[in-house]
Design a protein that fits this description.
The structure is a single chain. The protein is α+β, with helices and mostly antiparallel strands. It folds into two domains: 106 residues; 90 residues, no CATH class. Helix content is 33%, strand content 18%. Helix 1 packs across helix 4 and helix 2 crosses helix 4. It holds the Pfam family SU10_adaptor. InterPro entries: SU10_adaptor.
Length: 227
C-alpha cells in the first residue's frame, strides 16, 4: 500500500472524499496532511524497536581510535541495547551523562572491555579498542519511507512511496492527529490506534528462544575472559 493509498483511506474516513494525489497538489488539505503523515511515521518508529527498522553496526578497531562515525542512516540506539565486544562476553558500559564521561576520560577506571558515549554525531569508546576488536551495536534506522524502486528514504516525497511499518497503523495515526489539529474529539480514534500499536509491537517481538538447562563449555572464564 502506497502512502497515497494510506492518505486516501484516511480522507475517506474523515471527509468522505478521495483525492487523486498527495504530493503533486498544493491544496491546504494535502499540505497539512503531508506534515501529519511525516509526524505520525516518526512517532510510530520511535516508540518501539521494530525488527524491520533494526540495523547492526560493526566497528573496526585499530588500537588507537576511540571516535567512530555513526552509520549514515542512524536514527537512534535501541531502547534496550548495548555495545557488544567481539572478544569479551561483557558489554561496553554506557556513560550516564557527559559529566560521567569526562570523569571516565580523566581517570579511566579499570573496566573490561570499556565505556562508550554518543555525542557530536559519533560513538566514542574508551579505552581505544585493541586491534582486531569489532565492537557492534544495534540501532534503528531513520529511513522510514521506501521509494518505488525499493530504496529506503528519510521522508515521504512521492505518491508511490510506502511506509516501512504497518500501513493501517499509519492511517489510524493520521486520522486521530488530523482530528486533534482540527479541534475535534479524537480520543476514541487515538485509543484504537494505541490498541493496534500494542498488538503489532507484541507480535513484532518474535518467538522466544528456548534455552537448554544444560550448560555447554565455552572456553571462557566466569567473567568472559578467555581461559
Amino acid at each position: 500500500m502506497t502512502v497515497l493509498s494510506v492518505f486516501q483511506g484516511a480522507v475517506r474516513r474523515l471527509l468522505g472524499q478521495k483525492p487523486n494525489t498527495l504530493f503533486s497538489a498544493q491544496d491546504p488539505l494535502q499540505i497539512k496532511m503531508q506534515e501529519i503523515i511525516q509526524e505520525a511515521a516518526l512517532d510510530l518508529s520511535q516508540r518501539h524497536d521494530w525488527q524491520v527498522l533494526t540495523r547492526l553496526c560493526t566497528l573496526t578497531a585499530d588500537g588507537n581510535t576511540e571516535d567512530f562515525p555513526l552509520p549514515i542512516d542512524y536514527g537512534r540506539m535501541l531502547l534496550k541495547g548495548d555495545v557488544h565486544s567481539s572478544q569479551w562476553l561483557l558489554t561496553y558500559q554506557a556513560a550516564n551523562d557527559m559529566d560521567e564521561w569526562l570523569n571516565l576520560k580523566r581517570f579511566m577506571p579499570a573496566q573490561v572491555p570499556g565505556y562508550w558515549a554518543l555525542y557530536g554525531g559519533q560513538i566514542h569508546i574508551i579505552p581505544p579498542p585493541p586491534s582486531g576488536e569489532r565492537p557492534c551495536f544495534g540501532y534503528i534506522t531513520k529511513n522510514l519511507a521506501i521509494g518505488a524502486d525499493g530504496t529506503p528514504k528519510l521522508t515521504f516525497d512521492t505518491d508511490a512511496d510506502t511506509f516501512a511499518l504497518d500501513e493501517n497503523l499509519l492511517k489510524m495515526s493520521i486520522i486521530w492527529r488530523w482530528k486533534q489539529a482540527e479541534g475535534l474529539d479524537y480520543s476514541e480514534d487515538m485509543q484504537n490506534c494505541e490498541l493496534l500499536f500494542s498488538q503489532l509491537a507484541a507480535k513484532d517481538k518474535g518467538s522466544k528462544v528456548i534455552r537448554s538447562s544444560r550448560i555447554r563449555p565455552t572456553g571462557m572464564g566466569i567473567w568472559g575472559i578467555p581461559g
